[in-house]
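Input record (one chain):
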Amino acid sequence: MKRRTTRHIVQAAMTFAVPITVAALSLAFSAQAQTTAEKIARGKYIVSTSACHDCHTPWKMGPNGPAPDMTRALSGHPQDFKVPPPPKPEGPWIAAFAATNTAWAGPWGVSFTANLTPDPETGLGKWTQRNFIETIRTGRHMGRGREVLPPMPIMVYNNFTEADLEAIFSYLQSIPAIRNRVPEPLPPGEAVAKSQ
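The corresponding structure, as predicted from the sequence alone:
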């Protein structure tokens, strides 16, 4: 009978352990990839059913009237679409919006919908998941900056769970980046001054 050395025992153990370890790592990686894919799919579902495209995707005139221009999906107010000063509200009307549905005027001034694509310079590319969640939770840009303005329904979106917001952010990071620098909002005084 051959005498087994420590080296032989280690080699024999490795013969069985390495494939098992590789298989286990492969399964773990597949589960992680599936979880990421599921999270992105959940985020897409929430974005598609929560009216995000209504304001953050510019509208264009189509055969059946105005509709979101999905070639610019979630890119916000088009940087090349200049809007004149807003009309003066009269009677019971207190707000107006541009033909693209990406610029809104009211008592808060003029707001322009944000670029939600992952462009690093003009969109959410430099944002972290934490920045995104804090923005929704606090109603402040990046969780600490200026107030998020109408028509963004922060009080409604505050009802999303952490998992919902993580899924939305994952989806927004997965879509094509569109370079589109959205203008800063105009405060009420400046918006009124520009209209006179």
